[in-house]
Design a protein that fits this description.
This protein has four helices and three strands. It is of the alpha+beta class. InterPro entries: Antitoxin_Phd/YefM, phD/YefM_antitoxin, YefM-like_sf.
């Protein structure tokens, strides 16, 4: 994660935005006369929002944790998809 001031970020805007997209880099833009902002790739943002949605309810969090525990303990299996 990089922290750049507003002038640095703006000066190399294309390079900084490309780095955010290509390297999944998160950039904090600090501003002297305003609140700092975070710049991140849209796919990364969407992934975080999906995770927050999936873990919003206690029931779903418990179900997801049980599935992870099952996989970690080797009690899971794979199979081919049925297509017809």
């Amino acid at each position: 994660m990089d922290v750049l001031n507003y002038t640095e970020f703006r000066k190399d805007l294309k390079k900084n935005l490309d780095r955010v997209n290509e390297d999944a880099e998160i950039v904090i833009v600090s501003r002297s006369k305003g609140k700092n902002v975070v710049v991140m790739d849209l796919d990364e943002y969407n992934s975080i929002m999906e995770t927050l949605h999936l873990t919003k309810s206690e029931v779903n969090r418990k179900r997801l944790q049980e599935a992870l525990d099952e996989m970690d303990s080797g009690r899971s299996f794979t199979h081919d998809l049925i297509t017809e």
